[in-house]
Amino acid sequence: QVQQEKEKKQAIENAKQADKELLIKAKASLAEAQKSPSSNNLELAKKAISLVKDDKAAQQLTKELDGIKNRVKLETEAKKAVADYQKNATNADKLKKAQTAVSKLTSDYSKTLKAKLTKDIVASKAQADKAKKAEEAKKSAQTAKAVDNSNQTAKSNASEVNQPQDENSVVTDPAPVNDGVAANDNVNVYQPTPQTPQSPAGGGNTSN
Fold this sequence. Notes:
- By secondary structure, the protein is mainly alpha-helical.
- 69% of the residues lie in helices and 0% in strands.
- The chain has 5 helices and no strands.
- The chain has helices at residues 2-35, 39-50, 55-87, 92-103, 111-162.
- Helix 1 (2-35) runs antiparallel to helix 2, helix 1 runs parallel beside helix 3 (55-87) and helix 3 (55-87) packs parallel to helix 5.
- The longest helix has 52 residues, at 111-162.
- Residues 179-187 and 202-208 have low confidence and may be disordered.
């Protein structure tokens, strides 16, 4: 009877020790998943946690595992948002989405990634702003050139209007008017009748 009690007690101790070892393994698997949250490491951690007999400890580990999965989800979304923004860095909506996604990376394990993605956003935005300024300068130059061409055309048209008429063109002058009397009317102007000299009275000279 005493032997059986000892064996039973030893079995309980062995079970407790085994549970402790399983808990240690589960925590180790979870820690590995935290450092490198690959799908394989997450699956191994999940399996290790399922073997833990202590319900309270298992629940805590499961909660931490869910936290890791959520972190991976946020990191994946942030990477995608930043990549989408980099493809179209002039899109304000994509910029806002990328910044919002990166701001959600609050885990200490995400610090390195968050810093990298933030740097990528800043670089892409700077490049986009530079390209935008260059495009605006180009448009301004084109507008100025168009205005200058318009002014040149206006000056050219004004010059053509002020040029003398062609030498071969016929210019009709109005007929001259002499005090309101036409030149042909001069034949009707009164002229005095020529006078015939008269012989002197007495019939001329007499001889002695």
